[in-house]
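User: My instructor asked us to take a sequence, write out its structure as tokens, and then describe one feature of it. I'm not sure where to start. Here is the sequence I was given:
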Amino acid sequence: MFEEIAAAIEAGDFQKAKSLMANLSPHAENPWWRYYQALIVEKEGDLELAERQYRQILKDSVFCEARLLKNIRDALERILQAQQTLEEEKKREFQAIENREELAVLILEAVTPEEKQNLAPVLAKIMRLDTYTARLQIPTRSWRLFKTGSLGDLSYYQFRLQQEGIPCFCHPVSVVNSIPVSRVVYIEESTNNSFQATVIEGEEEVEREVNFAWDKISNIVLGLLPIFELTTHVDSRIQIQKKISTLDYANLCDLHLVQENRILRLSDNSYEFSRGIQLTEASKTNQEKWRNLVRYIKEKTPCAKIWNEFTPFGEGAVNFPEMLKQITPHIDIFRREESVWDEAFQLYSGLIFLQTLCASKRDNI
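Assistant: Let's start with the prediction itself. The structure tokens for your sequence are:
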């Protein structure tokens, strides 16, 4: 029944094969008819659709003829080899990019729960994970640091993931480190729409003044940094144990001046509330003063985007301590116990800055 179709496919005459298939459409439920339909799709180059069709035949056919089963297995092996060849060719393209050996990070962007269910098998296939693990990796609330590695490799994975509809991006760590960060001592009003920040910069911590306008601020990045200390506890057996505990948190607020290529960083640990703009009475606690200062900043910057999902991002990022140690944090918090949370915040804020800069460049094209 299907000899003519097989001969047409073998000769590369796919139009004739399709015409013959159409004449046999009453036999569309026949596994052999479905096999030749998938074979035409494969030969025309749509490997993913052909693979799905072959696998569906195996799924639907409880008792599959030995010859048909062998043909399908051979086809799936051909598709696998072809996909691997294409993958290696594409990888070689990205291995040729400039600075391909630089350390970089690959970030997955948040999707809806419904999208997560659909994208998990796609992520699993590209990254060669099981579907359960892939589902755990796809975020629905904030960005997730998914993978670190060379810029060449991660650029390839970014290309593949974006190609399949998974929102993500990749940046070298060196570019994050290149963003100038100024630690703000206090802010005071300069003229009608101009303000002046007294900042500390450089390794020598030189104090200088920076003028800025509130309407130039693109992002406000808020974050809580845990402060750890080694504490002593008595367990149920009345034995003394030492463990690292979170004793306090430091509040950070980054103001992104993307057009000026600068981040202004405020911290409740170092901001001098007694100087500059006065928003509260002297008797107020630092926490109250900080809340009022952040509220004031938000009122002054109604068009700025507020980013306050650092904690879930940081919880994932601290699982990559060796990468984080390559980041300059620009944060001055006294710590008795070592932590990479400072570097995680610098990475989070820096990535937001870079993504905003990339979007601005695209808009100007």
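For the description part of your assignment, you could build on this observation: The radius of gyration is 29 Å. Try explaining in your own words what that tells you about the chain.
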